[in-house]
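Minutes, project huddle
Topic: does the predicted pose make sense with protoporphyrin IX containing FE bound?
PN asked that the exact inputs be recorded in the minutes so nobody has to dig through chat later. Recorded below.
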Amino acid sequence: MFRSYQGNDNNIAKLEIKEPSGGKTGGFFIFTAVMIYSFAFKIHIVISTITLLAGIATIAMSVQGLISKREYGRGDSGISIAFNVALYFQLILGSLIYYLLRTSLEGPMWEVPDTQNDASLRFWAIEHIALMIFALFLTQLGRAFIKKSKGTFRKFRASLFYFGASLLLILFSMTMALTR
Ligand code: HEM
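Predicted holo structure (C-alpha cells), as shared on screen:
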C-alpha cells in the first residue's frame, strides 16, 4: 500500500513491518502516523519537481541575462526566491518525514533499521539530507551575494554561480539515487 512497505532496495524505509502493538489507541495512532507519512512523502515529491523547475528557470534566466546584458529585474529575483523557498519547504517536510514520522513509527510499526550498516538506508538518512541542506545553504548565499552585488553583470554572475552550484548538487543527489 505504501512505498515504505514494498521493501524496495532504493528506499530509506526498507523496513520490516511488525504487528501493530498498543491495542486500539496504539493502532489508531500508527494508522494516523502512516497516513501523514504517506501524504507528506507525496508532497515532498511534488515540491521536488517545483524545485527542479525553479532551479532550471533561474539558471536559464541568468544565462540569458548575461548574454543579452539586460537589467537584473524582479522576474529574475522572483524565480530565484521561488527556488530558495521551495528548498526551505523541502527541508521542513523532509525533516518532518524523517525525524518525526519515521521515528515515531520505528518500534511500534516496523523494526528500527540498521542505517549505519546499510548503504541504501544511509543514503537517504545522511547523504540526501546533507547534500540538500548544502544546496539550500548555497541558494541562501546566492541571494545575499545578489543583494550585495552592484551592477547587472555581477548579479547575474552571482546568480549563475550559486544557484548553478545548488542545482548541480541536487541533480547529483538525484542521479546517485537513481543509480543505486
Ligand atoms: C532540503 C532538505 C531535504 C530533506 C531534509 C529531505 C529529506 C528526505 C527524506 C528523509 C527522504 C526519504 C523519505 C522516506 O523514504 O521515508 C527523502 C526522499 C526523497 N527526496 Fe528529499 N529531502 C530534501 C530535499 C529534497 C529535494 C530538494 C529534492 C529534489 C529536488 C528531494 C527529492 C527527494 C525524492 C525524489 C525522494 C524519494 C526517493 C524515493 O522514492 O525513495 N528532496 N527526502
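Observations noted during the meeting:
- DSSP finds four helices and no strands in the chain.
- The two ends are 23 Å apart (CA to CA).
No decisions taken; revisit at the next huddle.
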